[in-house]
Amino acid sequence: MNTTTYQQEIRFNVPPIRVYEALMVQEQHAAFTGSEVTIEDSEGSEFSVFDGYITGRNLKLIPGKLIHQTWVAVEDEWPDGHESEVTFEFFEEGEGTLLRFTHSEVPEELEDRFKKGWDEYYWEAMEVYFDESHQNN
Length: 137
Prior knowledge:
There is one protein chain. The chain has 137 residues and is α+β, with helices and mostly antiparallel strands. The protein has a single domain (3-135), classed as START domain (Alpha-D-Glucose-1,6-Bisphosphate, Chain A, domain 4), CATH 3.30.530.20. The chain is built from three helices and six strands, in the order E-H-H-E-E-E-E-E-H. It has helices at residues 16-24, 26-33, 111-135; strands spanning 3-12, 46-49, 54-62, 66-73, 84-93, 96-107. A hairpin with a 4-residue loop joins strand 2 (46-49) and strand 3 (54-62). The longest helix has 25 residues, at 111-135. The model has no long low-confidence stretch (mean pLDDT 95).
């Protein structure tokens, strides 16, 4: 199996801790994805997002700075027992956040599908979530 690594950079108009919490606080993650989520903000804990489509384990967590996780998808093309890794790095940028996202050990044939999935189901959904939550404050 050939694998690849890709990186994406996304900017949000909220502080890094808000982006971190949207990903790591179960209720917030469920709110922006509109799906069932089981996640806790502790290293070594396992998680499940998008109604079980994605599972993994939290390897390293630094609130507002870093999330490093294993990541497995339920896909026909996904090899049994294979884990990819995702890293979210958060950088303060004025009053907002620059998120540098890296996804490694991705089966090559799934790269484009996953890039589009991160864009649609995470980055765009998070922008809407932050805009809506800002209006409610």
